[in-house]
Amino acid sequence: MSKRYRVGILGATGTVGQRFVQLLEGHPQFEITAMAASDRSAGKLYSEACAWKLPGAMSESVRDLIVRPIEPPLDCDIVFSSLPSSAAREAEEAFARAGYPVISNSSSYRMDEDIPLLMPEINADHLGLIDIQREKRGFGKGFIVTNPNCAVASFAPPLAALHRRFGVEAAIVTTLQAISGAGYPGVASLDITDNVFPYIAGEEPKVETEAQKLIGTFTGIGVQKADFTISAQCFRVNVIDGHTASVRVKLRDVGTLEEVVASMREFPSLGLHSSPANFIEVTDEPTRPQPRLDRDAGSGMTITVGRVFPDNVFDYRFIALSHNTVRGAAGSAILNAELLIDRGII
Ligand code: NAP
């Protein structure tokens, strides 16, 4: 039986925090031993502080944990962070400095040049940044790794597949993002019901910059970003879970439609506990992907791509979809922790 690690969750009462609790139930490597959230929750039992919003009951094993403030020490070996970026920067650094591996969903450190922005299937070698980070920041045995923005997680995998095989020169990305991406209570019902909301604060710059780092090359001293440009528009739509991205892409070497589809279908998954059988599923069904039907593919860890066609203005177009609180948040962070254990870093 594999070693079990004690994990703590920062932002444990929120939308992503609850998804962590759900996904970690019964996990063979992890056991939740600590919860932390804001002053509103600290000191209460988790079951009192958390308004549980996922289907099914809150796990019995976490109900009686006392919610702590977001500062070390916490009774755990690994810290998962799902704090708002305003609180994350200071708290995550404090935990890393206190010797904890910090595996973050927050945007605070994603673009710092010594912090890995990870999707294990795409760039596990970026873990090489951890030694550089420890030396630069004087972290000792602690460190920070991040996963990408939830909308980036939907289109970066097919883009990475295309970049490896053909070279991506430019992409136009239009995202249709679920309500749960805004956390709880999120967008006012009167803004999102019967509506498409054309603004998500701070989102377009993230969508335009994170994929270049994620798909970039680790050189031994840093990450050389992939040299394509992205133009993004981000919309909030009346969907509970599942972010959709409509993508038009210009390639350096243009392949056939069959080659383009094969590059995505053949992109390997990993053999980690939370790895889906297929990292990228390409459907030929003309009406897919749809959030309601496809967000749970691979238990929420598969990216579903459809409507792959030649484009009249760019070279190809396609639609990509992923589950924003699983592959776009908690599930990705858990996969990152599994990778860190597999590579002997934790
Ligand atoms: P959320 O539902 O608003 O939850 C926020 C959590 O952080 C709650 O546990 C809250 O505790 C805690 N918190 C808020 N302000 C705090 C403070 N000043 N000090 C300490 N704790 C504080 O938000 P969320 O959707 O889970 O998002 C959390 C993070 O994940 C954000 O950085 C977000 O950008 C990122 N993310 C979210 C998604 C998604 O799909 N939702 C996807 C990827 C990444 P209380 O309950 O005590 O207030």
Task: Walk me through the structure.
This protein has 346 residues and is of the alpha/beta class. The chain has two domains: 5-149 and 329-342, Rossmann fold, CATH 3.40.50; 152-324, Dihydrodipicolinate Reductase, domain 2 (2-Layer Sandwich), CATH 3.30.360.10. It has twelve helices and 14 strands. The model has no long low-confidence stretch (mean pLDDT 97). The protein binds NADP nicotinamide-adenine-dinucleotide phosphate.
Instruction: Let me know the largest β-sheet.
Output: 6 strands, parallel
CATH architecture descriptor text of the largest domain: 2-Layer Sandwich
Q: Determine the strand fraction and express it as a percent band.
A: 15-25%
Helix percent band: 25-40%
Query: Quick one: CATH superfamily of the largest domain?
Result: Dihydrodipicolinate Reductase, domain 2
Low-confidence stretches: none
Got a strand count?
14
Strand order of the largest sheet: 3-2-1-4-5-6
Name the ligand types. Answer: NADP nicotinamide-adenine-dinucleotide phosphate
The secondary-structure element order is EHEHHEEHEHHEHEHHEEEEHEHEEH
* Oligomeric composition of the shown chains: single chain
Rg from C-alpha positions?
A: 19 Å
Q: How many structurally independent domains?
A: 2
